[in-house]
Amino acid sequence: MAITGLSLSRRAIFPLAALALFFGASLPALAQQQKSTAPSMPKVPPPPPPTAQLKRNVDLVPLPVTVVDKDGKFVNGLQQDNFKVYEDGVEQKISIFKHEDIPVTMGLVIDNSGSMSDKRPEVNAAALTFVQTSNPDDEVFVVNFNEDYYLDQRSDFTNNISVLRDALARIDARGSTALYDAVLASLHHLRKGHRDKKVLLVITDGEDNASEHRLPFTIRAAEQSNAIIYTIGLLQEDDHGEARAAKRALTALSEATGGLAFFPKTLDQVHSICLEVAKDIRNQYLLGYYPSNPQINGGYRRVEVKLADLPHGLGKVFVRTRTGYYPETVARASGAASR
Question: Is the C-alpha dihedral spanning 294, 296, 297, 300 positive or negative?
Fold first, then answer.
């Protein structure tokens, strides 16, 4: 991706050729759908050491879980015995249970295409409010994208509001919308983070029309990443076909990862949505289990979380988490085989 003429603080966060290798090595069938023909890139470096909040293991499956009542209010105070986790229909033993406000590694992935020019000031203000409302120990990065995508800050992560404000202010709204490529690159950048919990907030106003990768490839990469993706679609209802396609894509990304998709009717609603997302992240339960199925078979594993023995009078409640995952060991084994 050319960066000629850009400021030195603008960095292409990961070349598409390397993305295809990193995600595509374990996705041979989907990788054939991609159009990239660029040469091979160096191997991706290993992730940094884990933090103290959650000890990482190649087989550990972390599940951020949101529980709300019929009015959408968070249900707090539940205990480990109130949760049951199933993988492919088989109940699993919960090994880790937390309900606390832990810091996250978070990416703000903001559409910078031509149609966003009049929306960016309000979107930027809402994104800053989102960060300010989140855990002060979060580590954050900003990716602005049109047909290209850039990490618009000098360091990989920051929690400095002034730095983030400057990164968001790099408004050069022009060109097309390479949403899927920007999400893929951002998912890879999340792996450099030092927090166990990973989140992307994606804001766009239209359908992807410039990516080299496709939606199924992007969803599978998201399922493989353990990240939670929240999406905000500022869609034009008068363009029904494009709006429907964009809504389906944003909803699919969010539902697959346990996040939420929002489609505000007016631009000023973005602020309240960002506040809602920040609260959602900070009020989640964190469950973790070691799968009872040790086989490395390359298949998708469906996950379901149910509630049991709830306190009397609680009423109807709803649980949200990711719908499944591809084991890390599967990705590594498949990648080695393909090389």
Answer: positive
- For the stretch 79-89, pLDDT in tens is 999 999 999 99
Q: Confidence class of residue 327 from pLDDT cuts 50, 70 and 90?
A: confident
Query: With contact defined as beta carbons under 8 Å apart, do 295 and 267 qualify?
Result: no
**193 vs 198: CA distance, rounded Å:** 8
On the CB side of 113, CA atoms within 13 Å amount to 20
Other CB atoms within a 10 A radius of the CB of residue 54 amount to: 17
Same domain, 157 and 224: yes
For residue 294, the model assigns a pLDDT of 78
Q: Are 27 and 298 in contact (CB under 8 A)?
A: no
Report the C-alpha gap between 181 and 328 in whole angstroms.
21
Number of folded domains that form the chain: 2
| Pair (114, 229) in one structural domain | yes
Q: Based on the number of CB atoms within 10 Å of its own CB, is 192 exposed (0-12), middle (13-18) or buried (19 or more)?
A: middle
- Tell me: do 176 and 108 sit in the same domain: yes
Which residue, chain included where needed, has tokens 């490839």?
217
Burial class (CB in 10 A: 0-12, 13-18, 19+), 277: buried
Q: Flag whether 173 is in a domain.
A: yes
Contacts of 311 (CB under 8 A, 6+ apart): 77
User: What's the pTM value of the predicted model, to 2 decimals?
Assistant: 0.83
pLDDT tens digits for range 115-156? 898 999 999 999 999 999 999 999 999 999 999 999 988 899
Residue-level pLDDT at 76: 94
Judge whether residue 14 has pLDDT over 70.
Answer: no
